[in-house]
Amino acid sequence: MSNTVTVTTWSLEQTSPADLRPSAPAMEPDPATGGVRIVRAEVPSPEFSRFLYTSVGADCAWTDRLPWTYEQWRACLDRPGTETWVVWDQGTPAGYIELDAQDEAQVEIAYFGLLPAFRGRRIGGHLLSFGIARAWDLAERWPERTPTKRVWVHTCSLDGPHALANYERRGFRIFRTETGEEEKRPIDGPWPGAH
């Protein structure tokens, strides 16, 4: 039995705010329950960011940041132009999008996804649309930055089955496709037996 798996990675981009094709909102906020709302996590919190990363990415084999120390998380979150936007459903964190401001007026969607219990409810398209718009207007919140000229993201065949299509529906275009072998990673949810 092979210890590797074939993985295809797609890199996608938008080069103008006009490229964004937003989805319809997941549902209108209900004043009685709070409904679905998206809020920026303005206080950098390694604990909260690690919770989001492991909860959203565990069944998609997100492992790159698992060995990070507290100091590595803090350094990442403290970079100017790094933003974490969290979608909440009736007071419960349902997912997030992390923006990484880069050189040459580029913003990468570093991470994006929903906790498993919140998938399939149109929340993802709404969160992605909102996050892309925040990537395009990032310089309004970070005046030292040049206005965004390019928003990009990569996804792979280990991500959710609808990830690539969601990015394309939001107006992203593929600019690079790579296929290679990667070591198999255990996929078992945020804790053993979770899914």
Layout of secondary structure:
Blueprint: E1 4-14, E2 36-40, H1 46-57, H2 70-77, E3 83-89, E4 92-102, E5 106-114, H3 123-136, H4 138-141, E6 150-156, H5 163-169, E7 173-183
Parallel strand pairs: 5-6
Antiparallel strand pairs: 1-6, 1-7, 2-3, 3-4, 4-5
Helix pairs in contact: 1-2
Look at the helices and sheets and give the structural class: alpha+beta
Described by the principal axes of the CA atoms, the overall outline is: globular
Radius of gyration: 17 Å
Count every beta strand, where a strand is a DSSP E run of 2 or more residues.
7
Oligomer: single chain
Biggest beta-sheet profile: 7 strands, mixed
Q: Order of helices and strands, N to C?
A: EEHHEEEHHEHE
Strand order of the largest sheet: 2-3-4-5-6-1-7
List low-confidence stretches.
29-33
Overview of the structural elements:
By secondary structure, this protein is α+β, with helices and mostly antiparallel strands. Helix content is 23%, strand content 31%. A 7-stranded mixed β-sheet has the order 2-3-4-5-6-1-7, with helices on both faces. Helix 1 crosses helix 2 (70-77). The protein starts with a strand and ends in a 12-residue tail after the last strand.
